[in-house]
Structures are given as C-alpha cells and as structure tokens.
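Sample log: Interleukin-11.
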Amino acid sequence: MGTRSGPTMPRALVTLLGLWAGLCPCHVVGVRPRPPGGSELEAVVSLAKGLLGDTRALLGVLKSRFPAEGEHKLDSLPVLSMSALELGNIQAASALSRLSSDLLRYRRHVDWLRRAGPALRMLEPELGALLARLERLGRSLDLLLSRLSLPKPTAPQTPLPAPVSPWAAVRAGHAVLQSLHLYLDWASRALLLLRNKL
C-alpha cells in the first residue's frame, strides 16, 4: 500500500514560505514622512533654478545689445561671503533668511533698472518679467520661512540713486544682472544642499 504524502507537502511548503517571509529584510518598509517645509522647499528650489536660467538669458541679451567688457559693480548689491567649501556646513535658518533679504535687494535693483531712463527702455518687458519672477520666488520663500517658524526680513528703505548718464545705466544693468546670475547660481546650490539635509 502506498503512503499518502500528498496533503503533507503543501503544509510543509506553506511553513517554509512563512519562515522565509519572516527572515526577509525587505518585506514591508514604512513610508518616510515629509519633513516640515519639504514641499515649500521643493517649490523654492524649482523657482530659483528657473530664475537662474532666465537671468542668464537676459544677461546674454544685454551683452549683445550693449557690449561692455570687464567687470561692473554696484556697492548697493548683495555680496557673497560664503565660499563653496563653506556650503557643506550651511544651516537652514541663516541661509534662508539671508536669501530672502538679498532677494528683496535684487528686486529693488531690477525695478530701479526699469526706470533708469531711455538707455534700457527696450529691455523693459524683459526686466518686468524678471521682476515678476523674483517676486514669485520671494513669496515662496516667505511661505517657507513661515512654515519653518523663521523670521522674515524687512525690506530695505534706502533709495537707490538715479544713473547720471545713459552709459551709467548700461553699466548698472551689467552689474545687476551679472551679480544676480552669480548669486542665483550660489543660491541654487545652497538650496539643493538644504533639501538633501531635510
């Protein structure tokens, strides 16, 4: 008479599968919750990178229409004091507050260029569009600061002097856009590092 081994095999198989599932390290992994301000920071990163491209394009237009060799500076523009090596130790509170404050100053300078006289009048639509994007980035930064319970900077009140000549307005345009381009390049890198730290 043959043995009836059929019913025992499925039970053994089920037992082995149960043991394997318990030993497997990749069975179920909990979903990591989004950190506070995570979605707002993603929006700021995206806007900053887009604004960097817009500024680069407008700077190219300015250089093609008003060539001006050399480096142009304005003492009223923000100054980058953090080197690339220091980016690794960047902190959200200080970096985001500084970025918000500096963007307020750049918005004033871009708006100032729009009213700098006839020399830059042909760039008024592009400068207006750039100003609108700066304001949008500023609003997103304010939302992020609020989400992280960080203080918002106050807008600077010191008026900017009017350019003394058309050539001075052109040089000011180069100074503002060159500085903004470099600043946004730094800001985009800093924001990406902050995003990875959250």
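Observation: The two ends are 70 Å apart (CA to CA).
Observation: The chain has five helices and no strands.
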